[in-house]
Write a structure and sequence with these properties.
Rossmann fold, UDP-N-acetylmuramoyl-L-alanine:D-glutamate ligase, Protein-Tyrosine Phosphatase, Chain A, 6-stranded mixed sheet, 22% strand, nucleotide-binding, EC 6.3.2.9
Length: 457
């Protein structure tokens, strides 16, 4: 059957799937089920599990680079993260070969209602919490997308709701996705190497509101509303989260914290939960919980059921996760803090004395805002990884001198322990990716957990 939204693609057309990671593997499987002739190409080596799956489907593939065979196609379908400046993409566009993003390829085959969650930080926690609230409330719901479960695997599924974590990369390529409810948790500079500028990154993130259905709802930070509206090409009901500390406008509709309660002001004033029922570290996670609760409310859940779900939700690994408390010192694993804004949010949100472990592989960000937050909120900083000298220089420029260099996680934790006192939090929130020393942020966080757990009480 022809899909006019996808350049007239129909059964029997030849598709090349670019990328053989989790999303690429799922796209290839879906394409075969839809009757397409499929070829998979990856610039890196394809892992054995993926090879086994694509061989089972009879799919041809190549690895360690893209050849001319990849362009012998009626269209290219992109897995998550493929840049428009990739040579294979530029080559396809020069030849007039259509390029289709992951969301646009999958959305026509979704039977479920869809909630989209994007933002610089807090996406995974918010996605997981929304799915938890809906499931706890009796809906058949699943957290999918960049959270780890490829969206393509849920084509034709009978779930009532899919809660999709969506990246700026996926949104960049999308024209036809349609969300019932959309959330932008927050926006700060990130992935500028991919997008080329903060303006382009902002445009990709806010595009999710333009991809929300006419009777849908968009939820975002009040501070971002006016800039987001400049990107909109049609009307959309927007519910802002209003930070009482930095409130400039008294929004008639919005999400507020009042007297320890999360309150939604819409046609009436609706109490959603007591903040004491949020078992997540940091005020930034209160924002994630508030946005999640509002999504659940507009999905049809009663406030009492929402509060029960908030109370039963626990922190996700590597996201401001308390891993131990030894000798009065708390150890918090925020290895997913891979950019400056995420680490600044953690520092601003976690109360009390703090010693922070920073560093890794950088993204080309300005460390000035990080240095300001470290100076204001920490007693000491331990620096490791490729960026330790650059971060040290940024700290020095702000007049912060109590930093120490380390060559390993063991050395970093040992130094932090020697500087900490009872009541202090040792926080791993690197503000950098992990790829200089670890396979991913999870491996870094697990190593931190292991080193901490080996400390003597």
């Amino acid at each position: 059957m022809e899909n006019k939204k996808l350049n007239g693609l129909h059964e029997g057309c030849k598709l090349t799937i670019i990328g053989a990671g989790v999303s690429g593997r799922a796209l290839a499987s879906l394409a075969v089920r839809l009757g397409f002739s499929v070829f998979v190409t990856d610039k890196a080596e394809i892992n054995p599990k993926t090879k086994e799956i694509i061989k089972r489907y009879g799919i041809e593939y190549e690895e360690r680079g893209h050849t001319e065979k990849a362009l012998e196609a009626d269209a290219l379908v992109l897995s998550s993260g493929i840049s428009p400046r990739a040579p294979i993409i530029e080559g396809a566009l020069k030849r007039g070969i259509p390029v289709v993003g992951e969301l646009d390829f999958v959305f026509p085959h979704l039977k479920s209602k869809v909630i989209g969650v994007t933002g610089t930080n807090g996406k995974t926690t918010t996605t997981s919490l929304i799915a938890h609230l809906l499931t706890n409330g009796g809906f058949e719901a699943e957290a999918v997308g960049n959270i780890g479960n490829a969206l393509a695997d849920y084509a034709f599924s009978d779930h009532e709701w899919l809660v999709v974590e969506v990246s700026s990369f996926q949104l960049y390529w999308s024209q036809y996705a349609s969300f019932d409810i959309s959330v932008i948790t927050n926006i700060a500079p990130d992935h500028l190497d991919w997008h080329g500028s903060y303006e382009e990154y902002f445009a990709s993130k806010t595009k999710i509101f333009n991809l929300t259905s006419d009777n849908g709802i968009g939820i975002c930070q009040a501070r971002d509303v006016e800039e987001i509206k400049k990107q909109l090409n049609r009307p959309l009901k927007i519910i802002p989260f209003v930070d009482n500390k930095n409130k400039v406008v008294d929004w008639p509709e919005g999400i507020y914290f009042e007297d320890g309660q999360c309150v939604l002001r819409d046609d009436s004033k609706i109490r959603l939960f007591d903040v004491s029922n949020v078992h997540l570290i940091g005020t930034h996670n209160l924002e994630n919980a508030a946005m999640s609760a509002v999504v659940a409310y507009y999905s049809g859940l009663d406030p009492q059921v929402i509060e029960e779900g908030i109370d039963s939700f626990k922190a996700l690994p590597h996201r401001c996760e308390e891993v131990a408390n030894k000798n009065g010192i708390r150890y918090v694993n925020d290895s997913k803090g891979t950019n400056v804004s995420s680490t600044v949010a953690a520092l601003n949100s976690i109360e009390g004395k703090k010693i922070i472990i920073l560093g890794g592989k950088g993204k080309g960000e300005d460390y000035g805002p990080l240095a300001e937050a470290v100076k204001e909120h920490t007693e000491a900083a331990i620096l490791m990884g490729e960026e330790k000298i650059k971060i040290a220089e940024a700290l020095s420029r702000k007049g912060y001198t109590n930093f120490h260099l380390a060559n390993s996680m063991e050395e970093a934790v040992e130094k932090a322990v020697s500087l900490a006192s009872p009541g202090c939090t040792v926080l791993l929130s690197p503000a950098c990716t992990s790829w200089d020393m670890y396979e991913n942020y999870k491996a870094r966080g697990e190593h931190f957990r292991k080193v901490v757990n080996e400390l003597t009480d």
